[in-house]
Model the fold of this input.
Amino acid sequence: MNSEMEMKKAFYKTEHGGTTGKLEKVVTEYPAEECWKHEPFEVVTQCAPCKDFEIKAIKAGHCLKTGYFDRVNCSKSSTTVLRPCPSPKQSRRHEFYLFYVVNAAILIVSFLSTTQRKAQLERAVYMRLPQHF
Done:
């Protein structure tokens, strides 16, 4: 059982890769897993869903928060790392709330401008009323 887990972990490491194959390694002051925070990077795979094995058995750090990850290639250190990304459901929820707030603001501005214009027109009609008699 234990050797099977070791085999799965080894397979996981080879599947997700740690380096791009270049022999040069740049020594950095930060962990290699956080290179995307400190240097330019390129997103190789964007918001891919994690497998059940990654979430339940390995408890991979990049999968625990949202269940989705980005594969990122860091330029300076030439490493490929995985980082958590927000799930599509969370980003859609954020977009919906933004849409809701913008529409509420438009509603308030429209209501105020309409009431002001209506009052202005009623005043104009009231001022013209004595001219007809």
In short: Residues 21 and 79 are 9 Å apart (CA to CA). DSSP finds five helices and three strands in the chain. Residues 89-132 form one domain. Residues 19-24 have pLDDT under 50 and may be disordered.
